[in-house]
Amino acid sequence: MAKNYPESIPPSFSAETLSDAYRRGWNHGHGIACHNVPSLGATMRLEALGRVTVTAENIRDVHTDLCWEAESNARCYSPFEFTAHEFNSADRDKDGKFDPDKEGASESLWEAFEAGANDAITADLSEYTDEDYGIEPEQKEETG
After folding, report:
1. Per-residue confidence of the chain (144 residues) as pLDDT tens digits?
2. Concatenated DSSP letters of the chain
3. What is the chain's alpha carbon radius of gyration, rounded to the nearest angstrom?
4. Dihedral pair phi/psi, residue 44, rounded to 5°
């Protein structure tokens, strides 16, 4: 499985504050991908797929959709609120007033965080094998 820490950080996020935001995004995405693995036979409702029963044929699509729904939902609750507040305040001074010298800092942090989350989810999902999903060899033969 993918690591909970990126092996490298994209050059566009190499500045210290951006690399920290990217790492936080990576950890966020990694946790989502490894804790939202669907089970064969489970039935669920997903925003993108609707009501679906998990099969050997659709498990990767279901896993991907579960990850993106979880990533979106995770932003609605604390402790994520602390990260959001920190990033949203990055272009403000200590009194909460806009600081023109810090203009764009908030957007840059969010961009780095979202890239880290995206890269972690993609990295985790790319390493799942049929065995990881519990797909038996005879199930692969039926679909092949």
Report:
1. 567 778 899 999 999 889 999 999 999 999 999 999 999 999 998 988 889 999 999 999 999 999 999 998 888 777 788 888 889 999 988 788 888 888 999 999 999 999 999 999 999 999 999 998 889 887 666 665
2. ---SS-S---GGG-SHHHHHHHHHHHHHHHHHHHH----TT-EEEETTTEEEE--TTTHHHHHHHHHHHHHHHHTTSTTHHHHHHHHHTTTB-TTS-B-GGGTTHHHHHHHHHHHHHHHHHHHHHHT--TTTTT--HHHHHHH-
3. 18
4. -155, 165
